[in-house]
Every structure is written in C-alpha cells, then in structure tokens.
Amino acid sequence: MIIDVYISEDPALNDLAARFVKWICKEYGILPRKISIEAHDIVGNNGMCFDEPDGKYTILVKDNRDLGHMFTTIAHEMIHVKQYMTQNLGKLLDDNKDLPYADRWWEEEAFSNAIPLVTRFTNLISL
C-alpha cells in the first residue's frame, strides 16, 4: 500500500497523517493499492474522496484548518474508502443520485464514526 500525504509544509505532520491512514486501513481490514491525500482550497465542504481505477483513492481536505478538523475529515473520507472497497459505494452513489444528503446511510456512518477514530488514534499515540 502506498500512502502519499501532503496536507502541510511540515513533514512531521504529513508523516503523522500517513500513520493515521495506515492505522485506519488496519482497523477496517482494507488494503487499497494507493491513497493520496492533499490539502486544497475546497469550496462547499470539508473533504472529498474519489475512487480511481486499480484500487487507488484520492482524498482532498480543506486547507487552512486546525489539525483536529483535518484529521476528522481524513477519517470521514477514509470511511468512504472502506465503503468503496467493501460496500460498493460507487454503485450506490450512481443509483441514489436523488437521495437527499441527510438520508444517505454512507454519510451517516462517516459522520458518526470519524471523531471516534480520531480519538482512538490520539489515545494510541499518546501512550
């Protein structure tokens, strides 16, 4: 698995985010071929996840936010990676384009589980 992270000019922060992504993959039992995470000036939301051919995923996170918000967004989008890999999220998105955002179970799962993932990882690295 290749993990490329560039969310900060600080290499230590990028390395920590890469460790977080690797830990999430282990927690969910997924092994994407490649995950690229970049900070961008996103308008309208805090993050985006794109599934690409051959088991590759790109995650964009809104830049200029504090570390906690960025890691929560990474966790949220990594839950979508898990959903793409194990629950056929791509087909669900195609088949449910008209479903209101608040009624999408995959978003409910990502919102409800993102902060607990960040908390568990924080407790793990604080030991």
CATH architecture: 3-Layer(aba) Sandwich
Q: What distance lies between the first and last C-alpha atoms, to the nearest angstrom?
A: 26 Å
Mean pLDDT: 90
- Total domain count: 1
- Using the coordinates above, name the CATH class: Alpha Beta
Structural category is: alpha/beta
Helix percent reads: 40-55%
Strand content: 15-25%
Question: What's the name of the CATH homologous superfamily?
Answer: Metalloproteases ("zincins"), catalytic domain
- CA-based gyration radius: 14 Å
Order of helices and strands: EHEEEHHH
Uncertain spans: none
Tertiary shape: globular
**Can you summarize the main beta sheet?**
4 strands, mixed
User: How many strand units?
Assistant: 4
In spatial order, strands of the major sheet run 1-2-4-3
Number of helices: 4
CATH topology: Collagenase (Catalytic Domain)
List the topology elements.
Elements: E1 2-6, H1 11-28, E2 34-40, E3 47-52, E4 56-62, H2 67-87, H3 89-95, H4 105-126
Parallel strand pairs: 1-2, 2-4
Antiparallel strand pairs: 3-4
Helix pairs in contact: 1-2, 2-4
Description:
The protein has one domain (about 1-125): Metalloproteases ("zincins"), catalytic domain (Collagenase (Catalytic Domain)). Helices cover about 55% and strands about 20% of the residues. The protein is built from four helices and four strands, in the order βαβββααα. The protein has a four-stranded mixed beta sheet with strand order 1-2-4-3. Strand 3 (about 45-50) and strand 4 form a beta hairpin. Helix 1 packs parallel to helix 2 (about 65-85) and helix 2 crosses helix 4 (about 105-125). The longest helix is centred in the C-terminal third of the chain and has 22 residues, at about 105-125. The protein is globular and about 40 Å long.
